[in-house]
Amino acid sequence: MSYNILVTGGAGYLGSTMVPDLLNAGHKVTVVDNFMFKQTSLNHVCHNPNFNVVKGDIRIEATMAPLMKKADIIIPLAALVGAPICSLDPVGATTTNHDAITLMLNLLSKQQIVLMPTTNSAYGTGDENNFCTEESPLRPISLYAKEKVGIEKELMQRENAISFRLATVFGMSPRMRIDLLVNDFTYRAVYDRFVVLFESSFKRNYVHVRDVSRVFQHAIVNFDKMKGQVYNVGLSDANVSKRELCERIQKQVPDFTFIDAPVGKDPDQRNYVVSNEKLEATGFRTSVSLDAGIAELIKGYTMIKNTQYGNV
Q1: Burial, 288: exposed, middle or buried (Cβ in 10 Å; 0-12, 13-18, 19+)?
Q2: Contact by Cβ (8 Å): 172, 200
Q3: Per-residue pLDDT at 262
Q4: Which of 176, 174, 144, 150 is CA-nearest to residue 163?
Q5: Sorting pLDDT into bands at 50, 70 and 90, what band is 121?
Q6: Are 205 and 244 in contact, with CB atoms under 8 Å apart?
Q7: pLDDT grade, residue 51 (50/70/90)?
Q8: Alpha-carbon distance 8 to 172, whole Å?
Q9: Which helix (H) or strand (E) holds 245?
Q10: CATH number of the domain where residue 35 is located
Q11: CA 88/CA 113 separation, integer angstroms
Q12: What is the DSSP string of 173-241?
């Protein structure tokens, strides 16, 4: 079945992978993006008659209201993503990550569907075993995670909504981000050949950007049985520590060296092991392993060596 889908922030890291996939599935897709990173990541879909693009700010009601009236499904990707950029612009983070989403939710009819990415960084440090399910208490540390927790509570007041708590995403995308952890460490391995680790035992879950795209399509097809729920989205065999991640990279970049910092600590104190069983029970399976993603990044970095591919 074909839907009219509105994707905010569709030219970003997730969107530039997701939008072509949605178009290939036969949907009509409208993207609204402010192109703040001057990205040209959707050039390759402009030929598609089912693709439409609007340059605009999601915080402006006059921009969003007419676009939302035409949509069957809204996928709000537009955000200031990650703790560093939110710390640099806390006002922009609140108005974009929270206020703009509240505006959209207020403009929606009961029949319209919302599929929204949130973050499993909301778990903070998990329980005494650092283990987290969707029922675990939320202990967000960063402003980014706190805003996502707040908006998820509002989102789940709606019946026709799904929240995906994404693991840390990795992999090549038309709008690349090098500042994500797997992407960052692999880049350092390729070009610097070393990294200094703070709290190398801290664990996190990971997921490939193409699997993020796939889970949204999975939700569209299986919406009736998934709606009104929160789902963790990650690789169940990739709850790994920073040191373990470096060891995996080292297998493919043998001269990569990593050491533990003798002093200091990471300002990002996230440390958790995440269960993805609830999502897997709906029939979803990830398709790209951590090792395959690392191999992909190594190839991609042959083409990339500069600092423009980040959020800060």
Answers
A1: middle
A2: no
A3: 84
A4: 150
A5: confident
A6: no
A7: very high
A8: 20
A9: helix 242-250
A10: 3.40.50.720
A11: 32
A12: -SS--S-SHHHHHHHHHHHTSEEEESSTT-EEEEEEHHHHHHHHHHHHHTHHHHTTEEEEES-TT-EEE
Determine the Cα–Cα distance for residues 198 and 111; give it in Å rounded to an integer. 47
Q: What is the four-CA torsion angle of 176, 180, 182, 183, rounded to 10 degrees? A: 30
**What is the spatial distance between Cα 103 and Cα 99, in angstroms, rounded to a whole number?**
6
With respect to residue 247, please indicate whether it lies within any of the assigned structural domains.
no
Establish if 267 belongs to a structural domain.
no
Distances from the Cα of 145 to the Cα of 32, 64, 122, 288, angstroms: 23, 24, 5, 25
Residue that has been written with the tokens 């990569």 in this structure:
256
Neighbours of 250 (CB within 10 A): 15
Only one residue has tokens 């505006």, namely 103
Neighbours of 237 (CB within 10 A): 12
How many distinct structural domains can be found in the chain?
A: 1
Tell me, yes or no, whether 240 lies in a domain. no
Sheet containing 51-55, strands listed edge to edge, beginning at the edge strand earlier in sequence: 51-55, 28-33, 4-8, 73-76, 113-119, 161-166, 229-233
Q: How confident is the model at residue 145 (pLDDT cuts 50, 70, 90)?
A: confident
Predicted confidence band of residue 19 (pLDDT cuts 50, 70, 90): very high
Query: For the chain, what's the residue count?
Result: 312
> Encoding tokens for residue 163?
């929240």
What is the extent of the structural domain holding 96?
4-167+207-233
* Nearest 10 degrees: Cα torsion 293, 298, 302, 303: 20
**Mean per-residue pLDDT for 241-252?**
98
Tokens of 2: 């074909």
Token reading at 67: 């676009």
Residues 197 and 20: their CA atoms lie apart, in Å, by: 36
pLDDT at 81 over 90: no
DSSP bridge pairs for 132: 274
Is residue 276 in some structural domain?
A: no
